[in-house]
Design goal:
Layout lengths: L9 H13 L4 H4 L12 H15 L6 H10 L8 H11 L6 H30 L4 H5 L1
């Protein structure tokens, strides 16, 4: 049996987050592509991106210092790997030029995971015979 892993690109996730932490203005090229932290597969990347979005919504800068502070305030800094992991994310990114491309990869993988979840739910509903066929088709 094949061990299927949900669609994901940890590298693209790290690139997006690293680009934002490296250059706070990168969030402006990403926010419309990735409005939902759940598009990130990694729970720690979801927490980091949620902290970035919280700062963005308050019109505060989104850099490594402010994100570290936001995560500390929420009690999540150690859960994401600490300041060391955030610095590693920044060091992984040579340039922020491709941040939108990487964000689109993250989005695509998130959409695929949601499609898998929806198809699993439909499949389960088909087996239980608890829902009329017309409703399942809708």
């Amino acid at each position: 049996m094949v061990d299927l892993k949900p669609p994901q690109s940890v590298e693209a996730e790290q690139s997006v987050l690293g680009a934002i932490l490296k250059s706070g203005s990168a969030i402006n090229r990403v926010i419309d592509i990735l409005p939902d932290p759940m598009d990130f597969y990694s729970p720690r990347h979801q927490m980091i991106y949620r902290a970035i979005l919280d700062l963005y919504e308050k019109s505060e800068p989104c850099d490594i210092t402010t994100v570290v502070n936001q995560l500390e305030t929420k009690g999540e800094l150690e859960k994401v790997g600490g300041r060391v992991y955030l610095v590693e994310l920044v060091e992984l990114v040579a340039s922020t030029a491709n941040v939108a491309t990487h964000a689109n990869i993250v989005l695509e993988r998130g959409v695929l995971r949601r499609l898998i979840a929806a198809s699993n739910e439909i499949s389960s509903d088909c087996y239980t015979l608890e829902m009329p066929v017309d409703q399942l088709l809708d």
